[in-house]
Amino acid sequence: MATMEKMFITGGRRLEGVVQVSGGKNTAVAIIPATLLCDEPCTVENLPDIEDVHVLMQMLCALGAKVDFDGSAMRVDPRGVGCWQAPQKLSCRMRASSYLLGVLLGRFGRAQIPLPGGCDIGPRPVDQHIKAMRAMGASIEERFGVIHASAPEGMQGGDVYFDVVTVGGTINAMLAACRARGNTIIHNAAKEPHVVDLANFLNSMGARIKGAGTDVIRVRGQERLHGSTYAVIPDQIETGTLMIAAAASHGDVTITGCIPTHMESLSAKLLEMGAKVDERDDAIRVRSIGAHRAVNIKTQVYPGFPTDLQQPMTALLTTAKGTSLVTENIFEQRYKHLFEMQRMGAQVRVMDRVAVIEGTSALSGAPVYASDLRAGAALVIAGLMAEGVTEIGNVHFIDRGYEHLERKLAALGAKIERALVEL
Ligand code: UD1
Q: Lesser CB count within 10 Å: N end or C end of the chain?
């Protein structure tokens, strides 16, 4: 008998109260593989207890590292790592497995990485990652879905010019460069908070990285890196998801432990829609009383509006007054969630990378399926807004990246439950 875990949300409850944000997923999935670059044990703190972190932990173990994780802090002893072949099945489960390319090349001058999996949000090429590794002296071939990379003399510092601003490519280039011989300059680098956080972590291990957070990053390669204890930054996307959920439920929610400056593009849009957003040093309060106004959104690299918040934001726009235009510039096919929301009464048209959303007075609960992680978050928000019960299938996608989302929303007053159902 086939079964599936589903989430059941009874909409129409106002979210109220205080909620603590977890450690950042996108930064965690870069920092955990980076621990293999050093020659001593490292402890990474404030990690979210999510599926992607568990998969990475299994990957590190498969490579020979000793790993202990207590649900928040992870201790990695990389001294037993002698293998440069990323495990096939685990790699296919997540995009961040691609970071092992820079890590293993940096440490061993060799890597075999299955082409990465992850969320189904359209094509996610790795040509720029490969270009960066070649600029640092690696020979790379792609055969039968596996990247074979080698630099028999070790990686050498070089000039890396990205044709597009890529977060993953920038991270991979920094990882490989910090143990390469000589200096690397990464031009047209991504400026996302997780790029800066990874650079801070690598520097805490003795790397010499300057300029992270600007579009030129300079790395002076080091022969050895030492162990470190480091806490990852709070999750920018979880913070944003909770901010949108607060507005969507016409609630009053204070999100603590976050970094408000990372949220400026979203805060500006919520204010434009008529919500109230108050920032303190490490907290954001979002309140909303009346109807929201439609707004236009264009996803951009940081500090622009993040593609990861496009999906949750579209849920809020389905009931805003007027017509919203959403342009997805990073992953043009990241709109599958909108077709699910149509079942809930959303008035949406998609033309290439533009979604046209006509605000409707209310959504109604329906059975829907998450197609990826942030699509799942978008459907949760739609469920909070809808009349009646929304039944969300494929909740395993949500577990990949949100720590205790139901528990946090329930504590704020949402009616949200999970159950195993027969198919
Ligand atoms: C993206 C997000 C990142 C988020 C992550 C996880 C951006 C810019 N990036 O990072 O913030 O944390 O998803 O959800 O918002 N590209 C190429 N060739 C490459 C690599 C990328 O053409 O080799 C293109 C992509 O197709 C895309 C753009 O560059 O259009 C940016 O992609 P990239 O930043 O690399 O994606 P992720 O690293 O997955």
A: N
